[in-house]
Amino acid sequence: MALAKVKGLLGDLQKLVGRGNSADLAKAGDLIDDIKVEIISFDSLPPLLYSTPNAAEERALAASALEYGALVAVMIEDMELFERNMNQLLPIYTSCPSIPLSPLKRKVQGLNLMFLLVENRLSDFHCVVEGYTPEDLADSQVDFPVKLERELMVGSYDKFHSANAALPDPLYEFFMKSLLSTVRDNVADAMEVSYTTLKASDAQRMLMFDGADEFKEFIGETREDWLYQGSEICFSAMEVGGKTDIPSMRLIGQTLGYATELERIV
């Protein structure tokens, strides 16, 4: 019987994920694939949603397996795999609201919001947040990305940088690294249209680099048109018309805020 087999596989999966080493995570990925094959026979799952005798248990087991699938994807830093698991899990969440709250649900909800921030899918982010219950939003794992998005909206990059020290779970670090890269690209784009030249030390601070070597590496890999002139960075090679030197971070925050707000409206 598929239900009994899924129970056994899920128990093995929990043990492998709990150990967390690379070999066990590889085995966990195989187990998740095996579980997905078995739950195809569960007519209680979307899109059929039949009220079978074991519907409640089938839905809970399927959701739990996919939650572990999402965690494994983050642990092996596979963003595409994370998205695939979430695309399979979210219909269960929305179509089967009576499923008992699992220990992993809020963590997975928060990680999904982090993923949407990294992908700059802000419309999807806000749609997902609107669907969360007050209890969901009160959980620190869900509240963290919600607050983070607000800080990004108003250009509070100092708070964003310090948020690394207050992660609700170590798994959030994977998305924070990717999000930091996205934020840096956005800030760098705004710097190019806001300044003609800028002190290298100020540019390094705005881009949230702790060391000059990392900052220079970023320029070499992503901003080859930026030119060093003594202690300053010159953006004139971009030939952006009408830009002037404005010695303030406020314009960058406003520029990104307006862009984000426009995307939200669209």
Automatic annotation (TrEMBL):
Key word Amino-acid biosynthesis present: no
UniProt keyword list: Proteasome
Protein name as annotated: CSN8/PSMD8/EIF3K domain-containing protein
Domain CSN8/PSMD8/EIF3K span(s) in chain numbering: 104-230
Presence of the UniProt keyword Disulfide bond in the record: no
GO annotations of cellular component type: cytosol; nucleus; proteasome regulatory particle, lid subcomplex
GO terms classed as biological process: proteasome-mediated ubiquitin-dependent protein catabolic process
